[in-house]
Specification:
Elements: E1 11-13, H1 21-32, E2 37-44, H2 51-60, E3 66-74, H3 78-88, E4 95-99, H4 103-114, H5 124-138, E5 143-146, H6 156-167, E6 175-180, E7 183-184, E8 187-188, H7 191-208, H8 212-217, E9 228-231, H9 246-257, E10 263-269, H10 287-305, H11 312-339, H12 346-369, H13 380-386, H14 390-405
Parallel strand pairs: 1-10, 2-3, 2-5, 3-4, 6-10
Antiparallel strand pairs: 5-9, 6-9, 7-8
């Protein structure tokens, strides 16, 4: 349970007492009468075969304030899409599944690709982007939450706390980022956030000086959390990466588009665990290794848009500063773990730091080598300008997939 300390330049909403979830949900039902609420679930088909998503759906069956649930389904064959329809049919809320590998959505994606408007690569960013387009197209929700489908500790109060700040009519928040303690199985998790993002932000501040964007990013207690919520109007002008930089990209867009008093972070769970990625020390295209490169690139791109000149010398200085700061963090987390009766593998922690340090340089090299790279998916405003009926066609494709397959 957190204290009431406000850190950084973004409001933090804490878990100061164990408030019953029924009380939260009763308020949300009242809010939803004037501001309909929705949920986006980006999912791989493989997650339907894991226990986490089954429990999430079981918990969502008890939620009465949602007007819409949108599931983005990746890597699913026709038979698997039909299985997904059956899997989610127990949800009492209005729900639809975006079959991203189906012929209708692939045809629409190919048309956008021909206009250079489609996501450049497969992944969570692409999935989320199309789900956001469907939310705009269906016009059933005015505030929407998004969370992952692999949360093994999921309870429905996580969703209630996540969406509450953007649902409350007296709050002026356009966006809320969830945070929580990544502690499970007797150890502290969240290596990329703990050992890469925070030390990298502070190393960049040390090398580059006082840059408000870095202060903003360092205000978030868990910047890589896959849980956030937003008002509907946020979706139209959002430009996000399609790679592992999604969460950093979303925060960067909030910094670009909104004043700090329109943004907040909320503590949404006392404990949280999900599936873990391998470190992948020998493969920079997989696991935490690729994640660290994509995240570093996302930060470097945003710094460049702030007018910061980046060079090999700058990247080397940032890497050297990062390495020292990150090793100090390893010591801090070790002591924190010991005091709380948790275990920590110092060797594994320092191996991760060494890999991340090398990948900071690699990310810098990629950034400098590809000056013409356009890493962001276009905003839906731009896509609608180029293809005025795109949302109607997206909506129709999803509906026809549902009608053609629901009896399968």
């Amino acid at each position: 349970m957190a204290d009431f300390y406000q850190n950084g330049i973004v409001t933090t909403l804490h878990n100061l007492r164990a408030r019953p979830v029924d009380a939260l949900e009763q308020e949300l039902e009242h809010f939803a009468r004037k501001r309909p609420l929705g949920l986006i679930l980006p999912s791989l088909y493989s997650e339907l075969e894991a226990p986490a998503l089954g429990n999430i759906v079981k918990e969502l069956q008890k939620v009465s304030y949602l007007n819409q649930i949108v599931v983005g389904l990746d890597r699913a064959s026709p038979a698997e899409y039909q299985h997904a329809l059956r899997f989610f049919e127990r949800l009492p809320q209005h729900h639809r599944i975006l079959w991203n590998d189906g012929p209708r959505l692939k045809a629409l994606d190919a048309e956008l690709e021909a206009l250079d408007l489609a996501p450049k690569e497969l992944g969570k960013g692409r999935n989320v982007w199309y789900c956001m387009g469907y939310v705009l197209a269906s016009n059933r929700a005015e505030a929407v939450a998004l969370h992952d489908c692999d949360i093994v500790t999921y309870e429905r109060d996580l969703l209630a706390k996540l969406i509450y700040p953007v649902a409350h009519p007296m709050f002026n928040y356009e966006f809320c980022k969830g945070f929580y303690a990544r502690v499970a199985d007797g150890k502290i998790n969240g290596r990329v956030s703990r050992l890469l993002v925070t030390p990298l932000l502070r190393a960049a501040q040390k090398v580059l000086g006082n840059i408000e964007y870095l202060t903003f990013m360092d205000s978030f207690r868990y910047p890589l959390a896959g849980e956030f919520s937003f008002r509907r109007d946020v979706l139209t002008d959002l430009r996000i990466p399609s790679d592992w930089g999604l969460e950093i990209g979303v925060l960067s867009e909030m910094y670009r588009n909104y004043a700090n008093n329109r943004l907040c972070q909320a503590e949404i769970a006392d404990h949280y665990d999900h599936k873990h990625q391998d470190l992948s020390e020998n493969d920079s295209q997989a696991g935490l290794s690729r994640m660290s490169i994509d995240i570093s690139k996302a930060l470097f791109r945003k710094l460049a848009t702030q007018g910061v000149t980046l060079s090999p010398e700058i990247f080397r200085a940032i890497k050297a500063s990062y390495y020292r700061i990150a090793l100090d963090f390893v010591e801090s987390y070790r002591n924190d773990a010991i005091m709380n009766g948790l275990t920590v593998d110092i060797h594994a922690e320092e191996r991760a730091v060494e890999l991340f340090a090398d990948n900071i340089i690699q990310a810098g090299e990629v950034f400098l080598a590809r000056p013409k790279e356009r890493p962001f998916i276009p905003s839906w405003n731009r896509v609608i300008s180029a293809v005025p009926d795109v949302l109607e066609r997206l909506y129709e494709a999803v509906e026809l997939d549902y009608l053609d397959n629901r009896g399968g």
